[in-house]
Amino acid sequence: QVQLVESGGGLVQAGGSLRLSCAASGGTFSWMSMGWFRQNPGKEREFVAGISGRTGITAYATSVKGRFTISRDNAKNTFYLQMNSLKPEDTSVYYCNSGNTWGKGTLVTVSS
Fold it and tell me: How many CB atoms lie within 10 A of CB 101?
């Protein structure tokens, strides 16, 4: 059974950077496709970025393209989301997802 654990959230000023990590266990990591999503209270969870399992092809929401980068380290069974040029509207709880499995989320707060 796949388990995902996010880390790396925190408080940062606008224009700053954070790197989120998602540690995966219980699956064949190198084959896992994975996505980062975010959700604010009262709103639907939205796609942020994704990376395919075997090809490594990436995709990004328009709102983060050029600022965020998704990557993976197969040796560490970990996915990353590097977030640069953060904006207050990036404030959210960020979740990693693979298939039907979700992490518990990590809070990112961007102050203006």
Answer: 16
Determine the distance from the C-alpha atom of residue 111 to the mean position of all C-alpha atoms in its chain, rounded to a whole number: 19
CA distance 36 to 106: 11
Farthest-apart Cα atoms in the chain, separation: 41
What is d(CA 41, CA 30) in angstroms, rounded to the nearest whole number? 33
What parts of the chain have a pLDDT lower than 70?
A: none
User: What is the rounded end-to-end Cα distance, in angstroms, of the chain?
Assistant: 40
Contact 32, 92 (CB under 8 A): no
Whole-number pLDDT of residue 54: 82
